[in-house]
User: Fold this.
Amino acid sequence: MGSNGNGHAKSTHEDPVLVVVQLSGGNDFMNTVVPYSDPHYYDHRATLGVHEDDLIPIDEDLAFHAPAAPLKEFWDDGKLAIVQGVGYPNSSRSHFRSMYIWHTCEPEKISTEGWLGMTTGQIDPDTENVLTAVNFGRGLPQALVSKGVPVTSVGNLDNYGLMTGLDDEDDRNETLERFKEMYAPAIGTGAVMDYLSETGLGVLDGAHVLKKVPGMYKSEVEYGGNEIARGLKDVARVHLADVGTRIFYTNHNNYDTHSNQAPTHTTLLGDLSRAIMDFFQDLEDHGKADNVSMLVFTEFGRRVADNGSGTDHGAGGGAFLIGNNVKGGLYAEYPSLDPSELIEGEDMQHTYDYRGMYATILEQWMDVDSKPIVGGAYEQIPVFA
Assistant:
């Protein structure tokens, strides 16, 4: 891999790029990809069952909830894989614990190594480019944390050039405090501070490169003004600037729909689906979509039965893989809604281990050895062309 003269290795058009979209709070997969032909569905969802007028059928069993209509276009083009029932044994209903498990590939114990941080270390072992992995959002997801691996985190790309990186006191202090709050209980304050000093999170070495990115960007696509649209627009701008970023991470919040779910979830799915459509259209318009694949995941599904206004924390959710190199289709099995097969009568079983999905992405797309990252050999799915 060559360098652009600023110490930042440049990618070639062919280098595979992964964009990860985290749906925080626990997306209700049952009301995203709806098992409308299953009589148990409407029994369990007396209040929140999606009406047939609001369904876009995928096949005789499953349908997209109407706000996710843009995803149906990817499906029709053979560019959307739906990974059903993805999860892990003894699923935790704790947001923090479950997300931590997804981020570290360690369901049984506490780990400080994130799967994408370790991946970044494999892709760029000599840390030639601090922009190999870039997060858009406040703080840094545990998934991107790995000892000695620098990762750049950007709150707002448009304001980025106005700061001298994280020497901006408020920004730096907030990042440090978030790290201490999140990880110190598990690994101790000293270990957190060692990590921060080793990885150089206190400084953003990529600032002088990223501050030029907004001025380089021209597009016909008009993104929405919501959180996920802004995040994916930032991903597009950095990808199109060709600064060597191989892993992008961004977040869509507010999926914890215990109450008032119907309007909230409708808005969230609409915002997410349109943002994904706009993002890939932007890349297609620039001829830069062919080397990008996207993973959309959440920490758990919701409880099978609604609570009258929303849904509580559950298990057995689902994920999406999207891109020109994705072989669209249904993968793994949709968990049974039969009451006799639910976990403690309340939750869907998981039917596919999330570490197999990660291994699929790492081996088949990123060309990285997955075993040391996911902690062994897990069943992969034939999802990449």
Notes: Residues 1-13, 161-167, 200-204 have pLDDT under 50 and may be disordered.
